[in-house]
């Protein structure tokens, strides 16, 4: 049943892509558009997997061990991105990320710098000072980076935590610092998101009015 639904969806997407390619005025521009590339990436893996199944067999050793086939099947998640063509929310998200790439880079720099500082300090406090109470979770600085990132983002899985008093004080400072650092660039990203949403909504309304006017004329 799942394969039938998948085949129907792929057939619909394929027909849609072919029709849009036929009616497009500029074929080269059609192929270069990002959304059309995503459409091809979402459709192509299905046909490749079907061909590999035909030539290698459904239960063959090659197909069971084929990493390439599993990667191609994972590429079917591009179906979700196809919704961006019809959903203004995803279009707003994409436009916001495009316009706020500097703020996103600044956010990543803040996180990386704080992660380097707090991971080194936590590894020293939990595993480097007191030899009698070594915390094995903080055996290295890269291992401590995981604790820093989940603390700064206030996720707190609880899989590792400091046991010394200085380590717990550092953990509190790390959480507060994460809240402050994340709040600084997110304000600009939020305002850009609202601006992009209203802009795309205005474009959509204007396009709908133009289509209605052409239909009436």
TrEMBL record:
InterPro entries named among the record's database cross-references: Ion_trans_dom, K_chnl_volt-dep_Kv, VG_K_chnl, Volt_channel_dom_sf
Every Ion transport domain range: 4-199
GO CC aspect terms: voltage-gated potassium channel complex
Membrane topology: Multi-pass membrane protein
Keyword annotations of the record: Cell membrane, Ion channel, Ion transport, Membrane, Potassium, Potassium channel, Potassium transport, Transmembrane, Transmembrane helix, Transport, Voltage-gated channel
Main location group: membrane
A GO MF label: delayed rectifier potassium channel activity
Location of the protein in the cell: Cell membrane
Protein name: Potassium voltage-gated channel subfamily G member 3
Species the sequence originates in: Lepidothrix coronata
Underlying gene: KCNG3
